[in-house]
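Whether sequence alone determines local backbone shape is best considered at the level of individual chains. The sequence in question and its structure tokens are set out directly beneath this paragraph.

***
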Amino acid sequence: MHRSDEIRHLHGRGRVFDSVLDTVGDTPCIRINNLAPAGVRLYVKAEFFNPGGSVKDRLALNIIEAAEREGRIKPGQTVVEATSGNTGIGLALVCAQKGYPLVVTMADSFSVERRRLMRMLGAKVVLTPRAEKGIGMYRKAEELAKANGWFFAHQFETADNADIHEMTTGHEILGDFEGDRLDYFVSGYGTGGTITGVARVLRRERPETKIIMAEPANSQIVGQGEEQKRNADHSPAASQTIAQPHPIQGWTPDFVPFVLQELLDGAGYDELLPIPGPEGVEWARKLARKEGILTGISGGASFAAAMKVAAKAAPGSVILCMLPDTGERYLSTPLFEGIPEDMDAEELAISKSTPGYQLG
């Protein structure tokens, strides 16, 4: 049967949805056909299929709904969170649906598209100086929560973060690879929730699967092994001295999130790979041009790690790589440098090859 015939025989999802929140999760694992080395099967879990365009929709929904179940948030109470963007976007769509005002604090180094998307969804975005790094935006959110009695989402500390990935992401992977081998799972980390929650499931149900974690080569927070100083509530007490600016937005704040500490203390990963920022950009572009998969720099960097794994993997190996978000929120970043707005010489030549409908 041809693909066009398959499409004609589809019958929708077999259900309708009560709200956009019911569409979070259940994202597809997609085979890489043109970039994968011969002899291995490489897949990506495409989290940009979430309604807010990233994996962070999962934790945003769980943070709010867990707080509702446990009575930790009041109807109409303002939510506040520090974020590089994706968690803020996820929280913005959740809060829009549920009727909570949202204030996001974000360093001014992150892409302007993220600010505008959050504001489009009704959130207020408070920028903090990039020189203060991630801990600066964290402290601002903490300050605002205390001063105003707002609900602080605490994505870097809350158990609701990794729990949702154990309950959903990890079990989706088990279902998608049921009856098949899965030799490697590859992911970067930001809050640590995705890789920690998935690792719980894989260590328990698929112990043969090696878990590969990646971080920026010039900001190896885990790799350099500095102990993270914490406050009594598990929040970071100080920045890591090794932390440096890098273009992989969403990866590695300038502290070790408490959510990630479980993975580190429990030997929850098998190998740590440092990835230079330019490699993340390069592989994100290749995924777009060779596979038709549009992901961000963090997705490109995770894929760079997966390609390193694939290059050394035994024949027949199966590798799954997390792609956390979409490339559309990187338009003002190095990912789109050199991508012109106007026609280039080749496009002009195509235009002039026929006589009608020409510009200029």
